[in-house]
Amino acid sequence: MNKNFTKWQGCGNDFVLLDCMKEEPADYAGLSRRVCDRHYGVGADGILVVLPSDQADFRMRIFNTDGSEAEMCGNGIRCFARYLYDYGLTEKTEFTVETGAGILVPRLVFADGQITGVRVDMGKPHLLGEEIPVVGHDGEKVINQPITVAGKTYQMTGVSMGNPHCVIFVDDAENFPIEQLGAQFEHHEIFPRKTNTEFVEVKDRSHVRMRVWERGAAITLACGTGSCATAVAGVLNDKTDRKVEVQLDGGKLIVEWAENGHVFMTGPAELVFTGELTN
Ligand code: ZDR
């Protein structure tokens, strides 16, 4: 396998990207755990893997710090797209990427000839209970439904962006005890594939403050798919308009749930450093 890697971040959600177009590692899960470790490895919230695809221009896989594989990663796909262009794997500025959430379409955003970010057509959200999945809601949307964690009942909205999300609107996102409660949402019995959880404070109809507990990665500075899920949940609960700015711990994203049902996410993707794995 090619041991060279690039390290990226999007809103402080950081990734080690491995180009496996020619050769794949034997054990992705073990590799991700080792590489993501912030003391014994490079340090990252996940690894992104570049692969060939027979359905799209490229294929992306993502593995969390705990070695589990996620279907999709919103911040990651922007970094992935920028890698492909910056490193000459494509000359196109808009292309297709096969993911566990279907074929998605990133487009590089330029200003004065420089890349300033990436806009991604994230496809349509999946809202039925069995699609997210959330047990007990087959055939129906999961909007503003009770969920009890540590003896307290919260109101949740379920959204799949290919990966599962549980959106909780809170009065004060800054002081919500995510450290104490995040894992209990992640492993709650109503989520058979576990869940990412977003804690969202609505500032006004076009601005929200969001903090996240990620499945398989715990607290991170940002979550792209979670920002998309938040925008969708805001509309479903009539708390926000279809276009919102999502303020995360590590930056901000613009998300629009367009009238055609697709979610569009725009935000930064930056190269941090390059290196070579030694084991
Ligand atoms: C949240 C995420 N970093 C993103 O930007 O969308 C995705 C990472 C995958 C997530 N931890 C999962 O679904 O397991």
Write the layout of secondary structure elements.
Elements: E1 4-10, E2 13-19, H1 28-36, E3 46-51, E4 58-64, E5 69-70, H2 74-86, E6 97-99, E7 102-111, E8 114-121, E9 145-149, E10 152-160, E11 164-169, H3 178-186, E12 196-204, E13 207-214, E14 218-220, H4 224-236, E15 243-248, E16 251-257, E17 263-267, E18 270-276
Parallel strand pairs: 2-3, 4-6, 11-12, 13-15
Antiparallel strand pairs: 1-2, 1-18, 3-4, 4-5, 6-7, 7-8, 8-17, 9-10, 10-11, 12-13, 13-14, 15-16, 16-17
Residues 13, 46, 62, 64, 70, 73-76, 163, 196, 214-217, 223-226 line the site of (2R,6S)-2,6-diamino-2-methylheptanedioic acid (ZDR).
Q: What would the keywords be for this entry?
A:
279 residues; alpha+beta; 18-stranded mixed β-sheet; 4 helices; 18 strands; binds (2R,6S)-2,6-diamino-2-methylheptanedioic acid
Brief account:
This protein is of the alpha+beta class and 279 residues long. Helices cover 16% and strands 41% of the residues.
